[in-house]
Amino acid sequence: MKKFxxxxxxxxxxxxxxxxAVHSDALRAASPDNRxxxxxxxxxxxxxxxxxxxxxxxxxxxxxxxxxxxxTGVAIGNVFSSPSSDQVLAATRESNxxxxxxxxxxxxxxxxxxxxxxxxxxxxxxxxxxxxxxADDVTSAPANRRDDRRGVAGLAFAYKVAGAAAAxxxxxxxxxxxxxxxxxxxxSMGVGLSPTILxxxxxxxxxxxxxxxxxxxxxxxxxxxxRGPLDPADSIADELFATISDDxxxxxxxxxxxxxxxxxxxxxxELYILARRVSQRCNAGGIILERTYVGExxxxxxxxxxxxxxxxxxxxxxxxxxxxxxxxxxxxxx
Length: 334
Prior knowledge:
32% of the residues lie in helices and 24% in strands. By secondary structure, it is of the alpha/beta class. The chain folds into 2 domains: 12-184, Dihydroxyacetone kinase, domain 1 (Rossmann fold, 3-Layer(aba) Sandwich), CATH 3.40.50; 186-313, Dihydroxyacetone kinase, domain 2 (Hypothetical Protein Tm841, Chain: A,domain 3, 2-Layer Sandwich). The radius of gyration is 19 Å and the shape is globular.
């Protein structure tokens, strides 16, 4: 294992120290341990605050989406570990501009537990909180248990929709409903080519044989739906797109937005090969590809692989995704 680290146990704290040192004009700490961070101008008066959070190791998720037209605050856990309820509460306090706070994060058990605890504590302090869990990984649960699915790269779209609705003056219930509407029209699926290595452990989170891939893998290396020999890029893109399309019930004439996401160690050139094939599939099937995003939007340290996210667009989602948004990590985004 070769990594630019000092003490593995200090990895996350040193990452955050670096981020705050470099981006002090845009971000500030909201807790003594720096594990809660908010926009430098937070809270925004009379505007719904958007708070997210989760384990480290996924940049730009979660911390990278604190910015204009995106999230107001974030709570940061250790690598692949949930932030504490105190850290979530600190981010919530500093994100509350008087219109309530929406929690938007991935559907993982530890996160749910600690965010729910923080919501109860915030309510005791007079802060109204709503929660929407992002659950876009189509392979993690069947369609009839959509609410049980994991949240993966679709988080990027969720932050954009929530942040845009809040910036336009929507109420807390309206912002929450906008993200729920997105959830119902979004699906993601990933493929892994090599594992990630946790800094504190120094060992891979899973193993793949030489020349092997895993279809349907989770963002932490959760087991996918099948393993097999590495297929050509077009075959992989076909499988991902077909599975998501079937799940969403896409038909000729539908309009979509697509995110081709690198998991941390896949060259941008290879992501564009996948994007090219998705475009070809849309053209062949009469599906209107309105927006395509290619890059690293939700990673897993140095895992090699990619994921595909598809959003079926209507006028409402089209409008929200068109609004300006930016953060120190993703620039002018989506």
